[in-house]
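Shipment paperwork, digital attachment
Item: protein structure file
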Amino acid sequence: MKIGLYSITYLGVWYRGDALTIEEVIQRARRFGYDGVEIDGKRPHANPLDMPPPRCRALREFAAGQGIEIYAVAANNDFSSPIPEHRESQLLYARELIRVTADLGANRMRVFLAWPGVTLLPEGGGRYDIAQAAWRQVHERFSDEQTWQWCRQSLSETARYAGDHGVVLALQNHPPVIRGYQDCLRMVREVNSPHLRVCFDARLEHQLGPEGIERVVQEVGSWQVLSHFGGEYTEGPGGIQCTEALQCLAEVRGLTAIGYQGYIGFELCHPLPVVDGKTAGIDFVDQNARLAAEYMRGIISRCGQERRG
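Attachment content:
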């Protein structure tokens, strides 16, 4: 199992300050002890409009020179719109991002069924609620099954594009169309493509306790080709503390049980603490990214020892 850093962490959305370049994210990954990076497929990181083949080659060479693998690219797609032109534009985005993924030397691309989006605020930071409200309003006249059919049609087409480039799509169990891991598995089975698998994220299964998470990871089994973890981290006399410690441990125990050898990537992608009226800055992000890598290495080692012993 390898530890990755997902570049959304440094996209400049949730902390006070500007986004890092991809090169700077790669350098952070090396400094903090990560094995690789997952690059977010939107500006300013890896929107296809900004990623012609020469740029991808240069970035691939830079990462290799740093000893860091670009192991995945993350799409921010929405295949659920009732408006055909919107779905077609999303198909084009996904197809082009598959090309970018291949050009970067990665063989995994994270996809959603529906990503409502995030609103960036003029004063800095972001909000989910505005985009979520707009998404709900657009879909209120259509049944869940109709929305599901639109998503399945677009995802099936995207899987064909992925196959043309030797890329495997990893469908994340992310709302709103997906309401749990069962929906994620259902869609993968219905599309029935060797180029579509699962990115299971334990943090999204709010109804599951640690035992349930471990069981579900094993149920997903060989469908799993990408994974994420999160939380906030502090360091004290008792070692590193994580706000999602039980989830992390349960997820890694499940991954260890199925013999998972892929990446589990850290992301800091939620509203951050506000101190004295100011949102946390990049120093807070650096601290969490550094501690997360160290913490996860310890968890992986612990679970491996448990499995062997």
